[in-house]
Amino acid sequence: MSVLEVRNIKKSFGKTEVLKDISFSLEKGEVLSIIGSSGSGKTTLLRCLNFLEYADEGTITVNGKLLYDGKDGKSKRMKEAEIRTKRLHFGLVFQNFNLFPQYNVLKNIMLAPTLLNHGDEKAIEENAKKLIERVGLSDKINNYPCELSGGQQQRVAIARALALNPDILCFDEPTSALDPELTGEVLKVIKSLKTGDSTMIVVTHEMGFAREVSDKIIFMADGIIEEFGTPEEIFGNPKSEKMKAFLSRSLENI
């Protein structure tokens, strides 16, 4: 059984169709990278998966459980508590970190599990410390976001997303706000999460990273999945002219 099944997702803003019948599946432990030019629908797709937007049509199923059905009016009238529960299946790392400036690193990671009563405080703190160590920031545990570099803030955001033990960890252009020097440290942490247990979806413009880490790659163009396959298929033998043109424009020119 797939961890994630996305079927026939459509999304429009006014008269503009942003997602046009998107379908794919993801197995446990797989890393899926979503690539494509700006405006192709990548981030909107991720926002629909995380219930930050509601798809107009289509279904989202996690571990065999239907979470969303665009044809069912109830899915679009979910109460906030129900939305929060469904979001727990997904951990989302944003482009711009979105850390709470008034809390130090430890408290940023402990906050959500504490509010949602995911164990007693001692267990939550111990788990947070393990995650901080996992992303290489044990020496910054008491620092506040303003005292961290952009790369360090993004690593805290990754640890925070992991704190609720999501089924699927999602990244929305996790290095787009970072300079090249800091990009490497964040990508290194994401690579380290590929253990066979972590299922991940990464919207990225880092072609080298996508090629090295992904099990599957989706290339989106004009709101559709233009190509879907392994890194070898996508980068080694692109079939569509749009894919070839996109790769030729890539900074890494893969």
Compact overview of the structure:
This protein has 254 residues and is an alpha/beta fold. The protein has nine helices and ten strands. Helix 6 links the parallel strand 7 and strand 8 (199-203).
Distance between the termini: 33 Å
Radius of gyration: 18 Å
Mean pLDDT value: 92
Low-confidence segments, given as residue ranges, are none
Strand order of the biggest β-sheet: 6-7-8-3-9-10
Sheet/helix structural class: alpha/beta
- Described by the principal axes of the CA atoms, the overall outline is globular
The helix/strand order is EEEHEEHEHHHEHEHEEHH
Characterize the main sheet.
Answer: 6 strands, mixed
Topology, number of strands: 10
Question: Percent of residues in helical segments?
Answer: 25-40%
The number of helical segments is 9
Strand share of the residues? 15-25%
Structural summary, described in words:
Strand 7, helix 6 (about 180-190) and strand 8 form a beta-alpha-beta unit. Helix content is about 35%, strand content about 25%. The longest helix has 14 residues, at about 120-135. The model has no long low-confidence stretch (mean pLDDT about 90). The chain is globular, with a radius of gyration of 18 Å. The protein is α/β, with parallel strands linked by helices. Helix 4 crosses helix 5 and helix 5 (about 150-160) runs parallel beside helix 6. The chain has nine helices and ten strands.
What's the arrangement of secondary structure elements?
Layout: E1 4-13, E2 16-26, E3 31-35, H1 42-49, E4 57-62, E5 65-69, H2 80-87, E6 90-93, H3 105-115, H4 121-134, H5 150-162, E7 168-172, H6 180-192, E8 199-203, H7 207-213, E9 216-221, E10 224-229, H8 231-236, H9 241-249
Parallel strand pairs: 3-8, 3-9, 6-7, 7-8
Antiparallel strand pairs: 1-2, 1-4, 4-5, 9-10
